[in-house]
Amino acid sequence: MAVYNYDVVVLGSGPAGEGAAMNAAKAGRKVAVVDSRREVGGNCTHLGTIPSKALRHSVRQIMQFNTNPMFRQIGEPRWFSFPDVLKSAERVIAKQVSSRTGYYARNRIDVFFGTGSFADEHTIEVVCANGVVEKLVAKQIVIATGSRPYRPLDVDFNHSRIYDSDTILSLGHTPRRIIIYGAGVIGSEYASIFSGLGVLVDLIDNRDQLLSFLDAEISDALSYHLRTNNVLIRHNEEYESVEGLDNGVILHLKSGKKIKADAFLWCNGRTGNTDQLGLENIGIKVNSRGQIEVDQNYRTQVSNVYAAGDVIGWPSLASAAADQGRSAAGSIVDNGSWRFVDDVPTGIYTIPEISSIGKNERELTQAKIPYEVGKAFFKGMARAQISHEPVGMLKLLFHRETLEVLGVHCFGYQASEIVHIGQAIMNQKGEANTIKYFVNTTFNYPTMAEAYRVAAFDGLNRLF
């Protein structure tokens, strides 16, 4: 058994693992990364963020082609199968793997492909695909192994028509009807993707409102647009059983309903990838969802072992995971790069997309903060009209007295890009973080960013 010595060993090469490895390497530490795949990138690149967003982009282009009057003059609406659309995602994945492989090489980071587990608090044993075992000894270790879809034991995921959000990427046909169980972020995104391909979707939600953490007006807008695209949303429902047939799937609900479809997609919760890490060998315990508890420095119960990304739970976003990994390494190398990652924008890649940061109306009302609202509807924006993207709005929430921006909520075209302007202003001090900034700043015209100016004027006009 070969033994290698490092300053830092990182388990996982997704956003959190990459962030930790790069920060430690740039601080002069000798770093190794262990990943169970034969390529870097983690679930984010291979199964989650990248493929689903690439899928969404292609579907959105198809929808635009089929609804834009100019394109309709070229010919009849085009139909694309799910496997055909998935090919575009595969090309993006290959490019991402290539880029990220280059990052590790340039920073002289050793990458081991195999299953890593703790022998003790300073030793990782890596079982490679060919059966060879490598031993990595390190001063500090960062766990960044990500998560996978939660699978209840009473659902047969080996059935050819029952999928989770990982295995759905192997779907070899386009179903006429699909049941999506779980109306969280992933379920809502896939509901948009499949409905955009003309598939009838039953979206099962065990709550009474879609994505209830969002501003209520944004949640209502998403519900409306999903319904207009043949998504049937069923609230306050829980599954009793999932019955796989030769020609489809029947979902039995506790309410007594039975729903049949060609395919079934489970999108209800995720589990941390910790079961193969040998954490019992070093005394680290996980919760019922396989997640590891950390302190504000991303340190676990074992002083030299850190954790970051989806494996620690909230907020389970690729962007936050990268910053958490970088911060965990910052705690190790003490180079001033540490911060506790908490105030992050929400990006939901439905069609249309959603993004927000800060407080929503419900939270401000409950806190008895005197606020006002400013809105800009995209249907009146020149850039949205040019782009044939009239659906959506920008909503600003600000303090009535100080005019401080308290929340930014966007629904529609380029929402996940637009929100960052508001995010930057909210992080400023003094008058620079008030709604007056948008009134006293000249924006390019025509742009989607101009929505901030329109919304700011709308809000100020409500004051008296």
Automatic annotation (TrEMBL):
Residues 344-455 form the Pyridine nucleotide-disulphide oxidoreductase dimerisation domain. Its EC number is 1.6.1.1. Its cofactor is FAD. GO terms for cellular component: cytosol. Its main location: cytoplasm. FAD binds at residues 35-44, 53, 116, 145-147, 310. The keyword NAD applies. Signal peptide: none annotated. Conversion of NADPH, generated by peripheral catabolic pathways, to NADH, which can enter the respiratory chain for energy generation. This is Soluble pyridine nucleotide transhydrogenase. It comes from Pseudomonas peli.
